[in-house]
Amino acid sequence: MKMIAQALKLLISDPSRLVRKMKVEFAAPSMSTTAFLRRIYCRIVPPKPKASGGNAERLLFVYDTLRSPVTYDFLHYLSYANYLVRKLNRNHVDVILVTRDNALDSREKNYIAAVGDDNIAWRITNLAVPLCRLFPAVDRICIGSEAMAFELVKNYDVVQPHGYSYESPKNGVTRLDTPGWHFVDALLVPTSALQIIESYFPKNDPRHIVTITLRNYDYLPVRNSNIDSWVAFAARLDRAKFRVVFIPDASARGVSTMQSLRGCEVFDSACWNLELRAALYSRAWMNMGVACGPLAISGLMAGVVTVMIDRSLDYPKDYLDGLLKNGLVPGQAPAFYSTDCHFHLGIDDERTLLEAFRQYAR
Questions:
Q1: What is the spatial distance between Cα 299 and Cα 318, in angstroms, rounded to a whole number?
Q2: Structural contact between residues 246 and 268, judged by C-beta atoms closer than 8 angstroms
Q3: What are the residue boundaries of the structural domains of the chain, listed by start?
Q4: Global pTM value
Q5: How confident is the model at residue 102, as a pLDDT?
Q6: What is the per-residue pLDDT across 89-100, written as a single tens digit (0 to 9) for each?
Q7: Which residues are paired to 213 by β-bridges?
Q8: Model confidence pLDDT, tens digit, residues 2-34
Q9: What is d(CA 192, CA 88) in angstroms, rounded to the nearest whole number?
Q10: Would the pLDDT of 221 be above 50?
Q11: CATH code of the region 58-160
């Protein structure tokens, strides 16, 4: 009787809330009466048939980690899927992350040796999934086997990579210079993350925030940051005008070298939470670093200056050749990056950093 009285009271004061509460109760019964009614309903009304040959408003994006590395390049592929959704007038992107049964069988043996075979699973849940959540168009996310992916693609008429199937599994690589693929401000930072960053970096602080994203791990160490140069560069900036914030590399090696940043402001929370990283990038006046994966988040944002020191001419020849074949132009940001993102060709010594800072400061 008490529950009935409460329901009647809510019906009078806030009927829409009562309806919501009833829907929740029916979806997940907490009372024996509701559970009984749900069983009767389910016998009378069978579940909807499995979708087939369509999902007309959706695009399925398959990211097969057996054929594609789990790095921040995944952000590029998500951006391309987001471009296809708009181009094909779809409303949603569904993502399936295909896991590896044995990472040691991967064709990227040098990468596996550098990051560790168990790091792939860690990156799927701590890198790939959070990146998906920065794109409002991404709706459903599934982590599953290759066999699951082969079955799932049968339910979609638009799949990226095009033609992915049991007969023809493919990687997620997309050319950086794909015609028509231009910048769209598509990232959405969660409000809760923005509020947390505001508590760390309040807007009533008149200083300009300059973030420095460091790269420092074992895969292709030639791409790593010159930490001493970045620390010296930060010390040259006027502390009354600029608040310099370092974001270390989210790796064991990156953490171990944090002692090099003593005396500097370090926001290591951004290493482990991509939403906080994105929120800090969006809050900053300028985001700087060597051209590396995490900084691509900033490069895909409008309204904030991103300066990437492009050291591509120093990369190993076979690695650089692969990038060039995929559409990279040294010293030039891809067209799907924001116009506020600048690739500065050179090395990250102190002189170059000051030169780049002065060139792109506005």
A1: 26
A2: no
A3: 2-44, 58-160, 191-360
A4: 0.85
A5: 58
A6: 999 999 999 987
A7: 247, 289
A8: 666 666 666 677 777 777 877 777 777 878 888
A9: 32
A10: yes
A11: 3.40.50
| Neighbour-count burial of 324, counting CB atoms closer than 10 A to its CB (0-12 exposed, 13-18 middle, 19+ buried) | middle
Indicate whether 233 pLDDT > 90. yes
Q: Which residue has the tokens 């695009």?
A: 59
191-360 to CATH, choices 3.30.930.10, 3.40.630.30, 3.40.50.2300, 3.40.50.2000: 3.40.50.2000
Phi/psi at 149 (5° precision)? -65, -40
Q: What is the DSSP secondary structure assignment for residue 127, as one 8-state letter? A: I
pLDDT at 115: 60
Q: Which residue matches tokens 């790796």?
A: 251
**pLDDT category of residue 52 using cuts at 50, 70 and 90:** very low
Whether 58-160 and 191-360 share one fold: the answer is yes
SS3 assignment, position 157 = coil
Cα–Cα dist 32/259, whole Å: 59
Return the beta strands (E) in the chain as ranges: 58-64, 92-98, 138-144, 159-160, 208-213, 242-247, 265-266, 286-290, 305-310, 341-345
Return the beta strands (E) in 179-334 as ranges.
208-213, 242-247, 265-266, 286-290, 305-310
Give the pLDDT of residue 111.
Answer: 61
Task: Provide the β-strand partners of residue 63.
Answer: 97
Can you read off the two tokens belonging to residue 332?
């030039």
CA distance 147 to 151: 6
Number of helices and strands (H, E) in the chain? 16, 10
Report, as an integer, the average pLDDT of 247-263: 86
Give mean pLDDT, residues 142-167. 91
Tokens representing residue 316 in the block: 């190993």
Distance from the Cα of residue 94 to its chain's centroid: 15
What is the three-class DSSP state of 82? helix
Section 171-192 average pLDDT: 90
Report the alpha-carbon angle 245-121-300, nearest 5. 40
Q: How far is CA 128 from CA 2, 21, 252, 282, 334, in A?
A: 48, 34, 19, 20, 21
Burial 336-348 (b: 16+ CB within 10 A, else e): bbbebbbbbbbeb
Rounded Cα distance between 272 and 276, Å, is: 9
